[in-house]
Each structure stands twice: as structure tokens, then as C-alpha cells.
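Key idea: predict the complex, not the pieces.
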Amino acid sequence: MSTLEIKNLYVSVEDKLILDGVNLLIRGGEIHAIMGPNGTGKSTLAQIIMGHPKYKLESGEILLDSIPIQEMAVDERSRAGLFLAMQNPVEVPGVTNFDFVKTAVQARQPDNKKLRVGKFILAFEDAAKELKMGSGLSHRYLNEGFSGGEKKRNEILQMKLLKPKFAVLDEIDSGLDVDALRIVGENVMGMKSSELGMLLITHYQRLLEYIVPDFVHIMIRGKIVKTGGKELIQKIDKEGYDWLKTELGIDSLVDQPKQYSLGTCATNVGK
Amino acid sequence: MNSLPFIFSPLSNTLVINQGVVQKRPRGLVLKHKSNAFHLSFSATELTKPMNVVIFNQNTDLLLDIHWKAFSNQSVNLFWFIPDGVFDNSLSLQADASSKGRMNVIINDQSAELKTLLNITLEEASSVDFALTLIGGSNSFVQHNVYLNGVFASYKGLGLSVNHQAQMLEVKEAVHHQQPNTTSMLTNFLIANDLGYIRYEVIGKINKGNHGSNCKQQNRGVILSDGGSVQVDPLLLIDEYDVEAGHGAAIGDINPDELYYLQSRGLNEAQAKRLIINGYIKPMLDRFEYVPFAQYLEKQIDQIIKGDDLLGESL
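Result:
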């Protein structure tokens, strides 16, 4: 069984510490959800797992099947079995969806093995059909002119075809209407197996009605402060996060902006 | 290049000019030539297949003049291989009233110095879909003029310029709206690698009285190396109120967000860059119905964008 382990992770962006000692273990077959107010570091966790160059790992380890991956390049992590469904997938004009996914699948083939294109075309069409993405998808440029919902479904389409060991879904529910949410939820659940571990990052209960997590974590100020089961989702949905202030003995759920002195007015210091 | 590239050999609808001498002349083509000046027109009003013109082993300056007769519908692919030397070439396309057509020009420039004058003239209600690919060239200058001389004339221009090493290319492209209700749409993709330098000055000009005209241009440049340089000066010179006009230019390195996204799916840096650059080239390749032409062009461009090991060996 595969494992993705995050050990005592400290991460900064532009000299600001965002993750403040995160620990997490995901096993193949498990679905974990991370919830929390805005600006607590959820997406930073997603991006540092994938290796985004903007995020700086101050200390800690990310282990995939017990092998440290923090020194690996983004593409190496992907080929090792990680996948990140992004919150805001970029548009890449001129690159067709089909060419892109085909190249990505080809990149996973052993050195001397060529991708069987016919088989891949069928798999692509099936996945597009299951996500109700229309027949012209393969020729459309990557995410260009896609609606918010289409972009998110396109992320799931890539996940289906790339077959990762671990997938991080970063706010995959944002921008989705009720039907699209159901389609995405059903497709993600359709991939559930002991071969795939998932980490969902979300603000809302509605996604978790379709994708039922085994573990729910609450992240506050760059730390996982509470872990539980599905009951946590209902509590958050009813009461928000304020109850955690008392439980954790803190005044604020998010880091307060640091206040800087601009200096003082000139004064007569005398001579 | 001493012999005709093999992709042209089996094609019957191909005019070949080798060392300034007509070597192969297809049916349906009316050709007049005197010294180094060639004038082409077409006997049929509508060609079933595009006519190909290949010029290679050029040993002197050349003048090529193409004429689309009124109400005709033509399609021409021109492959112009410029060898080492100093040349001063001229290409003219005359589209008579109500003619329409499509022309792809590929200039593969190995010269030390090249000047090209390119004039396209459109008469009333004619429409031209024109694409120009410029590859290489140590020191090239292209003056590209489009004259919309008849009402309702419409011009669509696509440009792709690719260079590397210390090659220099300067293009002055100007569209002159000289009658009312004329339309032009220009799109240019520019790719510089190594120490390559590309400069485009793109002018859309609508003279007074030419109401209802529409003049647009889009320019995109990508620099693949620290030493490469792309400069675009888009200009609109508008002397009439009732018109539509717009221009845009975006130049830079490959977008790091695009690169990260592609790499997050397992493509290494070279593969990701290659795919993004293909996005620039693809509109040009897609214009060729005959697949070997597109493959040939892609290969020519590949050799340049590989650079001096900047994009890695896997390109």
C-alpha cells in the first residue's frame, strides 16, 4: 500500500511563514479532507506537495512511499505518482487538450515503450463522456475559453487518465453548479480504490456529500489543529470555526497582519 | 541545398525554379519570365489543389509576381529557399476584384544579407488569406505592404518568425486602408532563441473618408533564451471616425505558470516548453492540407528552437 507522509512541515512564501509544522499521513485508499478558514495555508500545502517553485520549504519532509520527494522536480513528483487538481488551472493557448494529455501519459511510459494511441483515444473519449464534456474537447486549447466548471472537470479528466497514486484536489468544488458538482463528485468516487489516496481541500460541505472522506482535518494558522471523522463536517457546517477559538484558546483564526512602525516624527532632540 | 527537397518531387502541381531556371512547370499555370523576373497567373478560375512554387539554389536577385484574376479562387504555397549570399528580392501578389484566395509563403533564409519587398494589392471585394513564415537569416529586412485598394476588400495576415544564434530580422508590415469598408486582421508570432533578434513594426493605416473599415492586429513574441530579443512596435494611424481599430502586443519569456502546470502533469521542462512553443507554430502548420509540408516546416523550425542546448536534448 502506498503512503504519502508529511512530517513537521514548515513552509514560507516571500519570507512569510505559512505552514507552521504540518503532520499528515495518507495511505492508499484513504480520502482525507482539509477544511479551514481562508488564508490558513491549505492551498500552500497542496502546492508544496507538488513542488511549486514559489513556495519555500523551511524544514520538514514529504515522503512518498517512504522516499523523500522534497528535492524532486515538479515533473518527477508527478511521474512518481502525485497529482494536483488546481484551484485555478491556467489557460495554455495553442496547446490542444488531447496533445497535452497524450504527452503527459506518454511521459509516464517506460523509456522504450510507446503509447498506444488508438487505445488512448478511446480512453480519452470515455473519460470526456463520463464527465459530460462534449465531443470537441480534444481539439480545444487547454482550458482556453473554458467555463469555471469545465476547467475543474478537465482537471478530473486528466486525473482519470494519468492514474496517480495520490491526488490533491484543491477547491475542486469552487465554480461548480449543482449538476457539475455531482458529476465531479461521482467521477472522483468512481476512482476510489486501494491504489489511490486523496486529499481534498474545500470550504464547503456540499462536495463532501459526494466524496465521503475517511478523515477530516481542520487547519488553522498553518497547523492541523483537529482531526476527526465526518461529524466534524457537520459541526463546521452548523457552527463555522469560531468554536475552535475557545477550544484552542486563541483570539483569531487567521494570522493578524504584522504591524510595522513607519518611524516617528522628527523631534527636537536638543543640542 | 543542391537538390530539390524530396517532399516536392512527387507533386505534379509544383513549379520549380532552380538557379533562376524553370525546371518543372505544372499545368494550369501561366508563366512569363524574363531574366530574373517571373510573372505567374492561373488559367483556371478555381484550382482543385493548391499550386506549389519552389525556389531554390537562387544565384541572383529575384522578382516574383503573382496575379489572381477577377472572380477566381486560388491557393498557392511558396517555398523560397535562400542560400548563402546577399540578395534583394521582391514578391508581389495582385488580387483582382472579387477574387479570393489563400497563400502560404515560407522563406527559409540562409543568406548573409537579405532584403525582401513584399507587396499585396487587393481590389474591390477581393479577399486574401496570407501567411508568411520567416526562418533564420543572418541579417534580413522585410518590407511588407498591403494595399486595400477596393471597397470591401478583406485581408487576413498570419506571420511566424523564428530565429536563433545571432540572427537579425527586421520586418516593417503596413496595411493601407485606401477605400471604405475594408478589413484587415494581422496576427504575428515571433520566437527568438540564443542571441536572435526580431523586430516588427506593424502599422495599420486608415486614410480619411474610409469609413466602415476595420483594422486589427495582434502580436505575440516569446524569447527562449537570456540573450534573445523581440521588439514589436504596433502602430495605428487612423484619420477617420467611423472605423474599428485595435492592436496588441505581448512579449516575454515562456509563462512560468503555464510551465508549472504542464510540469505538474509529468512533462519535463523541455517537453513543456516544446508544447507551449508548438502553440505558436500550430496555426501555421494547420494551414497545410498536405501533411508532409506541415511536417517539413515543423522540422525546419525545430532546428532553430532547439537552440544551443537551451531547451535540452529531448527536443
